[in-house]
Amino acid sequence: MSVLDVSGLAKAYGPVKALDGIDLHVRSGTRTAIVGPSGCGKTTLLRLIAGFETPDSGRILLDGQALAENRTALPAHMRGVGVVSQDGALFPHLTIAENIGFGIPKSEPDRAARIAELAETVGLKSAMLSRWPHELSGGQQQRVALARALARKPHLMLLDEPFSALDTSLRAAMRKVVAELLEKAGVTTILVTHDQAEALSFADQVAVMRDGRFAQVGTPRDLYFRPTDATVAEFLGETILLPAHVADGCANCALGRLATHAPANGAHARIMLRPEQIALEPATRAEAQAASTGIYAEVCACEFAGASTVLVLHILNPREANGAVPPRFTLRRAGFDGIETGAVVRVSVSGRAHPLA
Question: Which residues form the ABC transporter domain (predicted)?
């Protein structure tokens, strides 16, 4: 059952269309990530759902109640929506306890106990409640912001790039903590981010936005391995694109005959592979010259970057696809492989290739 239903949502700023007919359905208790490049409209969508702005047209329903319909909108404080922003937006003149309890009426019984419970829920020690926001680390401030948002018992939680100001290791840890907390609380969540890995690891549903529209919406696995087009494919991770002839569930390309996800047919098509589908084995030039089967390649460039190495591979014995043979492709590998420029390797592919429209 959908807790949030967005249909035909549009918003323009002068001649610029920030949103151009957005449809989105979010099931109760799930996590949705909206990902896209800067300026694509993802933050505008979040602001419309939160009630900070009014749409030009379209409708937003939360638990069946209209939050916005065309130019009529329910005020933000009446929506039952929690918001955590990039910087936490804590009140600097209030203690941590006062920040967490900001949305809890002072007349509510056991208010102090509720604040302490929320602090414990997000992993903050009771001794921190008397501190000021500037006395906490970035990660701790984000926990306070989350506790403050949870205090209102929202039907929907909106996270606007809440981890982007944290360092890499802390981002991953906080992302996991927040996901677990929201799942335990049963709160439906929408995360806006420009970080593809963050979106894929955090969400049950991912929506890729481009120019004010959704290019594709689906599960993280479907979007990663079955993107609708090359732009979505490349945005969600490193991609190998090859021209191919696709027929009867197979693609004939420079890497040989590969099984495909869909039985598409096309004299001239493109297929997508992810780098992790490619395996390399050390070989010799003599083996490559003598081989009647298998694909061999020469490493014509190698860029070592610690944990990973970027290789540029030139295919020595390509299996042609209508004469369109890419002479080389780029591949990121683990840094400990020890493969260097000039090496010859045997190339094999696991899994299925994905034909692109």
Answer: 4-236
Query: What is the CATH code of the structural domain delimited by 2-225?
Result: 3.40.50.300
Split at pLDDT 50, 70, 90, the class of 278 is: very high
Q: Where are the alpha helices (DSSP H) in the chain?
A: 42-50, 96-100, 111-121, 138-150, 168-185, 196-202, 220-225, 230-235, 285-290
Q: Which two tokens stand for residue 102?
A: 């900001």
User: What's the rounded Cα separation, in Å, for the pair 15 and 17?
Assistant: 7
How do the residues of the chain divide into helix, strand and coil, expressed in percent and rounded to 5?
30, 40, 35
**Domain range annotation of the chain:** 2-225, 240-356
Is residue 265 very low, low, confident or very high in pLDDT (cuts 50, 70, 90)?
low
Report the DSSP pairing between strands 156-160 and 81-84.
Answer: parallel
164-205: pLDDT as tens digits: 777 777 778 778 888 888 888 888 999 999 889 889 999 999
Residue (of 233, 165, 213) closest to 11 by Cα position: 213
